[in-house]
Design brief:
Strand content: under 5%
Number of strands: 0
Helix content: over 70%
Order of helices and strands: HHH
Length: about 100
């Protein structure tokens, strides 16, 4: 019986040592995560913005077009849009024939 008790004491002591080591490792990980929190937050916001732009591409293009029209003039923007439309139609027409 004494041998079982000694073995149980050794197991309990090993368990205490492991729990202390785990606690120290948790503290280290918490320190690393707290140091990485600001860059991860920025990356998360950037990812959300990219997903929004991907889902609402037409809205983003419209806003960009309005901003460019204010900067360069609406006439130039309309002329460029017309050229892009014509180029798109030409491209579609040539790809259909093949």
């Amino acid at each position: 019986m004494a041998a079982v008790n000694r073995r149980m004491q050794a197991v309990l002591e090993h368990r205490r040592m492991l729990l202390a080591r785990i606690s120290g490792q948790r503290e280290q990980i918490a320190g690393l995560v707290s140091a990485l929190a600001p860059p991860l937050k920025v990356a998360d916001h950037a990812w959300v913005a990219l997903r929004f732009l991907g889902r609402h591409a037409l809205l983003a293009a419209g806003v960009a077009g309005i901003m460019l029209a204010k900067r360069r003039g609406a006439k130039i923007m309309l002329k460029g849009a017309w050229r892009m439309w014509k180029a798109y139609r030409l491209f579609k027409a040539t790809t259909r024939q093949r």
